Amino acid sequence: MPALSKAEESAMRKAQRYLPDGLQFGLRNYWYPVLRSDQLPHGKPVGFRVLNETLVAWRGKDGKPNVVNDRCPHRHARLSAGRVLGGDLQCAWHGVRFDGRGQCSLIPWEPDDSHYRHELKIPGYPAQELGEWIWAYIGDPERFAPPPLQDVVPEEILHPDEFIVFTHPADMWKCNWLHALDGSDGYHAVMLHAQSQTKSTEKLGGGKAIPDLEDRRMEIVDTPQGLRGIVLDTEGNKIHHGHFMDGWKGERWTLPCLFSLPISPAPNVQPYVARLYQFAIDAQHTQGSRWVAMRARNEQERDRCRKLWDTVVGPRQAQVMQEDKEICETLGDIFEARANEFLFTVDRDVIAVRKMMADAWIAQTKGERPLPSKAAFAFPA
Questions:
Q1: For 311, which DSSP code?
Q2: Which of 122, 168, 232, 369 is an S-S bond match for 217, by CB 3.0 to 4.6 Å?
Q3: What's the whole-number mean pLDDT along residues 329-334?
Q4: Closest CA to 284 of 174, 140, 135, 160
Q5: Is residue 116 within 8 Å of 105, Cβ to Cβ?
C-alpha cells in the first residue's frame, strides 16, 4: 500500500480526533429505548439490531420483556423466527428452548436433567418496560453494573400524573449515529427548517413577519445551554424562533445519546420538550427513538395538549424529523466526512459533544463508565 501524503495523514488525524475506532458502533453499557411497547406484542418474538448486535425480544409469562442474542447456539438459526411457549423462547427449527436469562430450558430429545441443557446458554441483556418503551441495557453487566433505569431517564417518564407524552414511531436513518448527533447543533434550524418550523407569513415576537429564506440571516447567541441561531429580519431585528434561550433545567446533550430541545412556540402557548435518543444500529444506520412531553396535571390541560399536538406540534415535528434525516443521510462515511469538514467557531458545541462521546468510550477502556446525574434529565420547561 502506498504511503500517505502529509495532507492525507493530516486529514486522517483530523478524522480520528474524538473518533476512536469502535465508537462508530455506539456506546455500550447504557440503557437504550430499543422498541416501543406496542412493537412487542404478547406471544411473539421480535428481532432487531442495536449497537451492531442482532437481538430478539419477547414477553415472558409475567408480560415483562426479555432481550437475548438472536441466534440459536444449536445451528445458528434466528430465534426471532421461533415461538414463545410457556413464557420461554423456542427455536422453530429443532425446538431448543431458552428462558429470559438466555439459559436453555428444554432440548426436546434430551432428559430434563441433561448436562447439555445446563451448559447451553445465549448472551442476554437486562430489559425493562417504562414510559411506553422497551429499554435494554446493552453491554457487560458484570463489569459495569446497570444503574437503576429510573435514575437515567427523563423526568416526565417517571411522573405520568404530571405530564403527557406523545411518542413518535421509532425511525431508522441511513447514516452513522455520530452524524445524527452532529445534526442536533443549535443553529441549523434557522436554515434547514426554514419552511417547517416557522413560515415566512407567520408573525411572531413583536408582530414581525419571518423573512423568506432568500433574505434570511441569523445571529449566533450564547446561552447557558450552548449556542443558538436566531432569525434576523431584513432590518437586523431578532425574530422569535421558538427555542428557550435561558432559564431551563437539565442538559441539552446527555450520555449515552439523548438530545433535549425545549420549545416555546409563541407567547401564551403551551411549552414542551422534544426528546430524542439516537443510537447505532450498525456503522451505517441509526435508530431514532423520539417523544414530545408537555406538563399536564388535569384532564383539561391534557385536552389542550392533545389539541396542540394534533394541530401543530405533531405535524411540524414530523416534517422537521424528515428534513434532519434527509440531510444527515447525505454525509456518507463518518471517517471520510470528518476528514474533509471545515469547522467554524460556531461548531464548538458539536466538538464538545464529540469529545463527550469519545471520552465515555475511552473511559470504559480504563474500567470506568461515566453516568449522567439525575439532574441532567429534569424537564426543562
A1: I
A2: 232
A3: 96
A4: 174
A5: no
Measured distance CA(73)–CA(215) in Å, rounded: 62
Dihedral sign (CA 71, 76, 80, 86):
negative
Q: Are 216 and 231 in contact (CB under 8 A)?
A: yes
Quickly list H helices, the chain.
Answer: 6-16, 115-119, 155-158, 177-182, 189-192, 299-308, 314-328, 334-340, 348-365
CB–CB of 380/248 below 8 Å?
Answer: yes
Q: What is the pLDDT of residues 112-136, one digit of tens each?
A: 899 999 999 999 999 999 999 999 9
Q: How many residues does the chain have?
A: 381
* 329/311 Cα distance (integer angstroms): 28
Give the Cβ contact number of residue 327 at 10 Å: 14
Nearest partner of 242 among 264, 220, 218, judged by Cα = 264
Bridge partners (DSSP) of residue 274 are 261, 292
Q: If phi over 0 gives left and psi between -120 and 50 gives alpha, with beta otherwise, what is residue 18?
A: left
Rg, the chain, Cα only: 23
Q: Which of 54, 134, 328, 345 is nearest to 222 (CA)?
A: 345
Confidence (pLDDT) at 211: 57
The structure's pTM equals 0.90
Beta strands in 110-210 (DSSP E): 124-125, 127-130, 133-138, 163-167, 171-173, 203-204, 208-209
C-alpha separations of 351 from 18, 136, 226, 273 in Å: 8, 28, 12, 24
Residue 378 has a CB neighbour count (10 Å cut-off) of 16
Cell representation of residue 97: 428452548
pLDDT band of 221, cuts 50, 70, 90: confident
Q: Please say if the pLDDT value at position 294 is more than 60.
A: yes
